[in-house]
UniProtKB/TrEMBL annotation:
Keywords, alphabetical: Chromophore, FAD, Flavoprotein, Lyase
Name of the protein described by the UniProt record: Deoxyribodipyrimidine photo-lyase
EC number: 4.1.99.3
Pfam families: FAD_binding_7 (PF03441)
Superkingdom of source: Bacteria
Domain Photolyase/cryptochrome alpha/beta residues, every copy: 2-133
Native source organism of the sequence: Rheinheimera soli
Keyword RNA-binding: no
Native organism taxonomy: Bacteria, Pseudomonadati, Pseudomonadota, Gammaproteobacteria, Chromatiales
Amino acid sequence: MRRALVLFNQAMRWHDNLLLSEQADFDQRIAVVLLDPDEYLSTQYGMPRASIQRLQAQLKLLLNWQQQWQHKRRVLHIRIGPTAFCLQQLAELYDADTLIAAEPTAPEQYQQLQHSGLKLKLFDINSLLQHQLRPDLATLPKSFSAFRREREPNLWVQPPEQHAVSAQFYADPSLALDTTALDFISRDHQPTAALFNEAAGLERLMQFIWQQHAIIRYKQNRNALDGDWNSSLWSFYLANGTLSPCYIWQQVLEFEQQQVANESTYWLRFELLWREYFRWQMRQHGRAWFSKNAFRPPLDFSSPQADPRFELWCKGETGLPFVDANIKMLLHTGWMSNRGRQNVASYLIFELQQDWRLGAAFFEQHLLDYDCASNWCNWAYIAGVGNSSARQFNQIKQALTYDPKGDFVRHWLPGKTATGSLVHQPEPQVPVQEFWLPFLQQLKVSS
């Protein structure tokens, strides 16, 4: 009797999930999810890999997925420990020789699967371009613009598919949790943690597209710093694999066909394509993305050295209100708008002259929608390493444009009492940049 483990990390959903379907090569399959402490409790450049918020959200998601299996009278194993060790242990228990899983983009996760010693059968269920649409990494365009030009004119995305839960899934209920997992759950599970499961993702998708019709105004609203319907917030669910990108794409196309197609509906698909490009870039260059200049030779994996300016940036205490307010929002909520992310990244890299990898690691620690490819490739994109040119932002100009009355800054920095746009005035200790000067003058005029 041939048995295989099925790893549902980045695949905790019932819709458009090939991992659920029958596999003719096997008689029985054993469902499992893992939480590897190295990805959450170890350190990176002296910082924890994950905040307690992010750890608790992941743990809650695993437990919720196990409950969903129980409701279907099925068994899902939860294991907490080194990935390769846990997989080897389960394979021995069930006499399995193969691992079926969602194909990861993070080099570290791919290596962990390889180190299990099991035969790997990977399905890329979290990309738009799957199966016969899969790009050739050897000829992947060097820029997103070239990638977009190559793909977009006749872009066909893998259509989402419905897969019934295979009757092959088998397990001993007594093995669903081991003592290590039980101890970890009793210590770190927080019932009030955020839950980014499939039901929440599908509900957000339906609300944003079909109920609120927020998709119609997305391009105009996407740069807002907060607000319930200015961002789709799909990134939380895409990062966890609880929402299929192909299903999102299909829903946007159906809305365009049934309701209206405009710049905003197109822009959502445009951003999904950006996400897609970074996934393939991460697979193409792998670990080289974590070099100081990304994959530009010579590779330099030496640890970046932070100074006190980085510590102040991490606390939201640089003295530049627009940057500090965005950092405070991240620390409090585990989220930051795309506009905020670009500005705080630019300030850290160019004005504070810190290694971009420090910022990427800080975002990895705190973002509840952390995705390896999107996070590290976007930071490299701002820094101008890899195949990008540097993108420096003018934070005062940006503040006037996206927080003209200063309401966002006053909300996250309640100690600021200045009225109107004067709240964006840098504190005295902040070195004033020459290119800020015309916009600092506007603060005085518009107050």
